[in-house]
Amino acid sequence: MQNDYKLIYILPNLFTAASAFLGMISIISSFNGNFKAALFYIVLSLLCDGLDGRVARLTNTTSKFGVEFDSLADLVAFGVAPAILFYFSIGHNYGKFGSLIAGIFVVFGAIRLARFNVTTSINEPSIFIGLPIPTAAVVSAMWTYAYISYDFLRDYSFLFLFLNFFLSLLMVSNIRYPSFKKINLDRANVLKVLILLLLIFSFLYLYTLESILILVSSYVLYGIFRAVWAIFSKKINKK
Question: How much is the pTM?
Fold first, then answer.
């Protein structure tokens, strides 16, 4: 019985280890110029990252070690890996400026993770303060791959430097983003969610890259528009 307990305790950490490992493989792929594979491993790492926390909660094996290990793995998979992908595909064309943008993404990602670990017990579980680093990583990686895939974007490479810098700032900002950890799935909402998911999966099947770009970019813009609307509403109420 005790051995079974130890195995359950290890299980979420295996997903965390897999996430870090896939992040490292993504970095190697970027070094070799295989940017499609680099993106693929970042996405796989995202899936493992999503599973480790859920497995820990389901098996009641959440631990301080697991939290710290998860943060270190996230820094590799969602900080270093997308920054390397960005640098070797776009940033290297801008010399020190490109390396600076890539470095800022990693450093601000580390700050985001440290702040999350310190404040996670006092914040609402339904929101994130600042853009989560996995989201920033996927947005950066997807737009970088779009730059590689579409020739017409090659003339706007400087905008991609700004995008990565902007994502870095969003990670350390106080803008609130929904966490989707507690979604209300009562009987009244199940059918709506099912229809929405079917529509999303249909578009993912037909236009995979474009659909993911729209989804992740919409999430980023949602937080910004929500913050702007909150400021605008306060000004109106004061009048």
Answer: 0.87
